[in-house]
Specification:
By secondary structure, the protein is mainly alpha-helical. The protein has one domain. The chain is about 75% helix and about 0% strand. Helix 4 crosses helix 7 and helix 7 runs antiparallel to helix 8. The longest helix is centred in the first third of the chain and has 34 residues. About 10% of the residues have low confidence.
Protein backbone atom coordinates (compact mmCIF):
# COMPACT_ATOMS: atom_id res chain seq x y z
CA UNK A 1 0.00 0.00 0.00
CA UNK A 2 2.86 2.37 0.73
CA UNK A 3 4.28 2.02 -2.79
CA UNK A 4 0.80 2.35 -4.31
CA UNK A 5 0.28 5.50 -2.26
CA UNK A 6 3.53 7.02 -3.46
CA UNK A 7 2.86 6.18 -7.09
CA UNK A 8 -0.68 7.53 -6.73
CA UNK A 9 0.66 10.90 -5.56
CA UNK A 10 2.96 11.24 -8.57
CA UNK A 11 0.41 10.01 -11.12
CA UNK A 12 -2.38 12.21 -9.77
CA UNK A 13 -0.16 15.29 -9.71
CA UNK A 14 0.78 14.85 -13.36
CA UNK A 15 -2.68 13.79 -14.55
CA UNK A 16 -4.48 16.59 -12.68
CA UNK A 17 -2.03 19.14 -14.04
CA UNK A 18 -2.50 18.20 -17.68
CA UNK A 19 -5.81 16.40 -18.01
CA UNK A 20 -8.06 15.65 -15.07
CA UNK A 21 -8.63 19.14 -13.66
CA UNK A 22 -10.37 20.50 -16.74
CA UNK A 23 -12.12 17.19 -17.44
CA UNK A 24 -13.51 17.12 -13.90
CA UNK A 25 -14.93 20.63 -14.27
CA UNK A 26 -16.54 19.78 -17.60
CA UNK A 27 -17.97 16.52 -16.24
CA UNK A 28 -19.41 18.29 -13.21
CA UNK A 29 -21.11 20.90 -15.40
CA UNK A 30 -22.38 18.23 -17.82
CA UNK A 31 -23.98 16.26 -14.98
CA UNK A 32 -25.66 19.44 -13.72
CA UNK A 33 -27.08 20.10 -17.19
CA UNK A 34 -28.20 16.48 -17.56
CA UNK A 35 -29.96 16.54 -14.19
CA UNK A 36 -31.62 19.87 -14.95
CA UNK A 37 -29.88 21.78 -12.19
CA UNK A 38 -29.27 25.31 -13.38
CA UNK A 39 -26.09 26.06 -11.49
CA UNK A 40 -22.97 26.75 -13.54
CA UNK A 41 -19.87 28.57 -12.34
CA UNK A 42 -18.68 31.19 -14.81
CA UNK A 43 -15.22 32.66 -14.50
CA UNK A 44 -14.99 36.46 -14.55
CA UNK A 45 -14.61 37.77 -18.10
CA UNK A 46 -11.44 39.44 -19.25
CA UNK A 47 -9.17 36.97 -17.51
CA UNK A 48 -7.01 35.30 -20.11
CA UNK A 49 -4.40 32.85 -18.94
CA UNK A 50 -1.33 31.31 -20.45
CA UNK A 51 -0.97 27.53 -20.55
CA UNK A 52 1.35 27.62 -17.51
CA UNK A 53 -1.15 29.71 -15.53
CA UNK A 54 -3.97 27.31 -16.43
CA UNK A 55 -1.92 24.31 -15.30
CA UNK A 56 -0.97 26.06 -12.06
CA UNK A 57 -4.59 27.02 -11.33
CA UNK A 58 -5.80 23.48 -12.00
CA UNK A 59 -3.21 21.92 -9.73
CA UNK A 60 -3.30 24.51 -6.95
CA UNK A 61 -7.09 24.42 -6.68
CA UNK A 62 -7.11 20.65 -6.12
CA UNK A 63 -3.72 19.85 -4.60
CA UNK A 64 -2.80 22.07 -1.69
CA UNK A 65 0.58 22.08 0.03
CA UNK A 66 -1.17 21.18 3.27
CA UNK A 67 -2.95 18.26 1.59
CA UNK A 68 0.21 16.87 0.02
CA UNK A 69 2.10 17.20 3.32
CA UNK A 70 -0.72 15.46 5.21
CA UNK A 71 -0.77 12.69 2.60
CA UNK A 72 3.01 12.12 2.70
CA UNK A 73 3.20 12.25 6.51
CA UNK A 74 0.33 9.75 6.83
CA UNK A 75 1.71 7.27 4.26
CA UNK A 76 3.59 5.29 6.94
CA UNK A 77 0.22 4.40 8.50
CA UNK A 78 -0.01 1.84 5.70
CA UNK A 79 2.80 -0.11 7.36
CA UNK A 80 0.44 -1.11 10.18
CA UNK A 81 -1.35 -4.23 8.94
CA UNK A 82 -5.03 -3.71 7.97
CA UNK A 83 -5.89 -1.07 10.57
CA UNK A 84 -3.25 1.34 9.26
CA UNK A 85 -4.65 1.39 5.74
CA UNK A 86 -8.16 2.02 7.03
CA UNK A 87 -6.91 4.88 9.21
CA UNK A 88 -4.94 6.28 6.27
CA UNK A 89 -8.01 6.24 4.02
CA UNK A 90 -10.30 7.77 6.66
CA UNK A 91 -7.81 10.45 7.70
CA UNK A 92 -7.08 11.58 4.16
CA UNK A 93 -10.63 10.93 2.98
CA UNK A 94 -12.04 13.37 5.52
CA UNK A 95 -10.07 16.14 3.83
CA UNK A 96 -10.33 14.88 0.24
CA UNK A 97 -14.11 14.36 0.20
CA UNK A 98 -15.08 18.04 0.15
CA UNK A 99 -12.61 18.79 -2.66
CA UNK A 100 -14.86 16.89 -5.06
CA UNK A 101 -17.55 19.52 -4.43
CA UNK A 102 -15.26 22.48 -5.14
CA UNK A 103 -17.12 23.22 -8.36
CA UNK A 104 -20.46 23.06 -6.52
CA UNK A 105 -19.24 25.45 -3.83
CA UNK A 106 -18.00 27.84 -6.52
CA UNK A 107 -21.30 27.67 -8.40
CA UNK A 108 -23.24 28.38 -5.20
CA UNK A 109 -20.91 31.29 -4.43
CA UNK A 110 -20.21 29.92 -0.96
CA UNK A 111 -17.77 31.84 1.20
CA UNK A 112 -15.19 29.79 3.13
CA UNK A 113 -17.11 29.99 6.44
CA UNK A 114 -20.38 28.93 4.79
CA UNK A 115 -18.61 26.13 2.94
CA UNK A 116 -17.03 24.85 6.17
CA UNK A 117 -20.40 24.85 7.95
CA UNK A 118 -21.93 22.98 4.98
CA UNK A 119 -19.15 20.36 5.11
CA UNK A 120 -19.27 20.05 8.91
CA UNK A 121 -23.00 19.31 8.71
CA UNK A 122 -22.22 16.39 6.37
CA UNK A 123 -18.85 15.35 7.80
CA UNK A 124 -19.58 11.61 7.87
CA UNK A 125 -20.78 11.55 4.28
CA UNK A 126 -17.78 13.55 3.07
CA UNK A 127 -15.36 11.31 4.98
CA UNK A 128 -16.93 8.13 3.57
CA UNK A 129 -16.96 9.56 0.04
CA UNK A 130 -13.36 10.76 0.30
CA UNK A 131 -12.11 7.45 1.75
CA UNK A 132 -13.86 5.41 -0.95
CA UNK A 133 -12.57 7.73 -3.66
CA UNK A 134 -9.02 7.60 -2.35
CA UNK A 135 -9.17 3.80 -2.11
CA UNK A 136 -10.34 3.53 -5.72
CA UNK A 137 -7.72 6.01 -6.90
CA UNK A 138 -4.97 3.79 -5.46
CA UNK A 139 -5.79 1.05 -7.97
CA UNK A 140 -2.88 0.99 -10.42
CA UNK A 141 -3.42 2.12 -14.02
CA UNK A 142 -7.18 2.83 -13.70
CA UNK A 143 -6.93 5.23 -10.74
CA UNK A 144 -7.35 8.36 -12.89
CA UNK A 145 -10.44 6.79 -14.48
CA UNK A 146 -11.90 6.32 -11.00
CA UNK A 147 -11.24 10.02 -10.37
CA UNK A 148 -13.59 10.81 -13.24
CA UNK A 149 -16.27 8.40 -12.04
CA UNK A 150 -15.96 9.87 -8.55
CA UNK A 151 -16.44 13.34 -10.04
CA UNK A 152 -19.67 12.18 -11.67
CA UNK A 153 -20.77 10.70 -8.34
CA UNK A 154 -19.97 13.94 -6.53
CA UNK A 155 -21.91 15.93 -9.13
CA UNK A 156 -24.94 13.63 -8.79
CA UNK A 157 -24.71 14.01 -5.01
CA UNK A 158 -24.58 17.81 -5.38
CA UNK A 159 -27.61 17.67 -7.68
CA UNK A 160 -29.52 15.69 -5.06
CA UNK A 161 -28.58 18.22 -2.38
CA UNK A 162 -29.65 21.08 -4.62
CA UNK A 163 -32.98 19.44 -5.51
CA UNK A 164 -33.74 18.76 -1.82
CA UNK A 165 -32.98 22.38 -0.95
CA UNK A 166 -35.39 23.58 -3.64
CA UNK A 167 -38.26 21.31 -2.57
CA UNK A 168 -41.12 23.07 -0.81
CA UNK A 169 -41.19 22.23 2.86
Amino acid sequence: MLVLGESYAVIMFVSKAFFLGRAQDQLFNAVFRQEGVNLVYVEPKGKSRSFAQSVYKGVSSRLSKEGMLRYIVSLPLNLVPMVGTVLFLLYNGSKAGPTFHTRYFQAKGMLPATRQAFVDKRKGAYTAFGAATLGLNLVPVVGPLFTLTSTVGAALWACDIEKKEREPK
